[in-house]
Design a protein that fits this description.
By secondary structure, the protein is of the alpha/beta class. The protein has helices at 12-24, 26-29, 55-62, 81-89, 117-136, 187-197, 214-223, 268-291, 307-319, 376-382, 392-409, 412-428, 443-447, 480-483; strands at residues 2-6, 35-36, 46-50, 68-77, 103-109, 149-155, 159-165, 205-207, 300-304, 327-330, 346-349, 433-438, 453-459, 462-470. It has a domain at 187-226 and 293-470: Vaccinia Virus protein VP39 (Rossmann fold), CATH 3.40.50. α4 runs parallel beside α5. The relative contact order is 0.12.
């Protein structure tokens, strides 16, 4: 079978590395042979691979960077909408789902000659429901919010690819986030950024503006070998229950993954393979829990000036099935110090932007996170190919965000905060590697620190950079006795 694993723009290289690691797992090898496509040299929005159909289960369970795992149903040339109808109506959809299940169809395009993607979507949808009506005597209903089955098509200038979505809800929705209001950084983007930093569980990790804790929770789950899909896979039973304020209440073991609602995955042999994959993951989790029995032993910590966000972080940490309480303080980033006995380590942060930042004070800032999650529609419609994300609607959204940010950069309090924070890094974090995700391309100048590396990334529609700063350890000042 052919798969296309979707990821946020700019994360193709770490995704390819992750796919290779998943394919090398003994439980993945037991499923059959995997062949991963060469890593693209330019942004593609994902990686293709050939693998047994069972690989969909391993990918959805273990991939931290993927947004979706798409199973290719067909690829063919096309010239007009009727070609899409003929191709889709010729596929045996009745082998994959029933007419009693609900359906959603999404179409993305890059340089397609068709005038209307909406009309292309309608033709593919009609083809699928007409096929099921002809075979079963009944038509499936359409549900654009929470469908049982999702079909995606991608159009190039001459070719169409039709996919079944084996993920269901986007994979960044891990199931542990419990919050109300604007969501923070998408979990899979955070995981990809951690991969880019080169952070290893043996290293100290610190986030002085941790917000609700996305970077730190993703890192802790990596260290403890907790699969990102563990909650949705039901590996904790009923232990994880979102509250009535849950931002993503439907992403639980009850909802699961898209493949669990497809006929081939409900056959006994695939059910057994699914159980084997989860048992192998559980054994690895137990082994790592012995190595890191407490939150403190992980060497992962953070701080934030906003008391509400710190409280939210603690709740998310517990729902993510991490040990104890997280090592976190309510503190101004300008007063944050390296963790005890940590002479060097990795600092990773995503400063707030888009609203006024209150620099100091007991109550902390009201913050609209720079990494706010955008609505579900762009996730589905535009992430399959980066170029598609640059269509007019998304371009307008990104440019408006940039204008808002540009206005914010003129706030003298914010500019002064960045200058002070840069000085604080020089004085207190010598020997550390500092990584900052931001849409502010002028950030190094505002911090007055020269970056050693900048990595282009996309946070939803917003073009960002991950800046790396190598903080050199301060040389000791010789005393008078040394100079004599």
């Amino acid at each position: 079978m052919r798969f296309f694993v979707v990821c946020p723009g700019g994360l193709e290289v770490p995704l390819a590395q992750e796919l290779a690691a998943i394919a090398a797992r003994p439980d993945s090898k037991a499923l059959g042979a995997w062949v991963i496509d060469p890593t693209p040299t330019s942004p593609t929005g994902g990686i293709g691979l050939a693998a047994p159909i069972s690989a969909a289960m391993a990918l959805n369970l273990h991939s931290r960077i993927a947004s979706r795992v798409l199973l290719q149903m067909a690829q063919a040339p096309y010239r007009q909408e009727e070609d899409l109808y003929k191709l889709a109506s010729g596929l045996a959809w009745e082998d994959w789902f029933t007419s009693n299940q609900t359906l959603r169809v999404d179409v993305t395009a890059h340089r397609s000659p068709l005038k209307s993607l909406n009309f292309a979507t309608l033709k593919i949808k009609d083809a699928i429901v007409d096929r099921l009506r002809d075979v079963t005597g009944d038509r499936p209903s359409i549900d654009t919010a929470f469908p049982d089955v999702r079909v995606q098509a991608h159009l190039t200038a001459t070719q169409v690819n039709i996919y079944l979505d084996t993920s269901g809800e986007a994979l960044f929705k891990r199931g542990w986030r419990d919050e109300k209001g604007d969501a923070p950084l998408k979990e899979n983007l955070a995981a990809g950024i951690l991969s880019i930093t080169g952070w290893q569980p043996s290293q100290t990790l610190f986030d002085p503006m941790c917000g609700s804790g996305t970077f730190l929770i993703e890192a802790a789950q990596m260290a403890l070998a907790i699969p990102p899909g563990a909650i949705r896979a039901g590996m904790y039973g009923d232990d994880v229950k979102p509250s009535r304020l849950a931002y993503r209440p439907l992403v639980t073991s009850a909802h699961g993954f898209g493949f669990q609602r497809l006929k081939p995955f409900n056959e006994l042999i695939e059910q057994k393979r699914w159980v084997d994959l989860k048992e192998a993951a559980q054994a690895q989790m137990l082994a790592m829990r012995k190595q890191y029995p407490t939150a403190e032993s992980l060497g992962i910590s953070g701080g934030d000036i906003n008391e509400k966000l710190v409280s939210m972080f603690r709740g998310n940490w517990q729902r993510a099935q991490l040990p104890d309480q997280p090592v976190v303080r309510q503190i101004d980033a300008l007063a944050a110090k390296p963790p005890v006995n940590a002479k060097e380590g990795v600092m990773l942060l995503n400063p707030p932007y888009g609203e006024r930042l209150v620099i100091k004070g007991g109550r902390g800032q009201e913050r609209n996170s720079s990494d706010s999650e955008h609505d579900e529609e762009p996730e589905n419609r535009f992430e399959l190919n980066l170029e598609t994300g640059r269509q007019s609607a998304k371009r307008s959204s990104r440019e408006s965000l940039k204008r808002l940010q540009a206005q914010e950069e003129q706030d003298p309090k914010f500019v002064e905060f960045l200058r002070q924070f840069g000085q604080h890094l020089k004085e207190s974090f010598g020997g550390w590697n500092v990584f900052v995700l931001t849409a502010d391309m002028a950030l190094p100048g505002q911090l007055r620190i020269k970056e050693s590396k900048r990595t282009p990334l996309f946070n939803g529609p917003l073009e960002c950079r991950l800046f790396k700063f190598e903080m050199h350890a301060k040389r000791p000042i010789p005393n008078n006795a040394d100079m004599e």
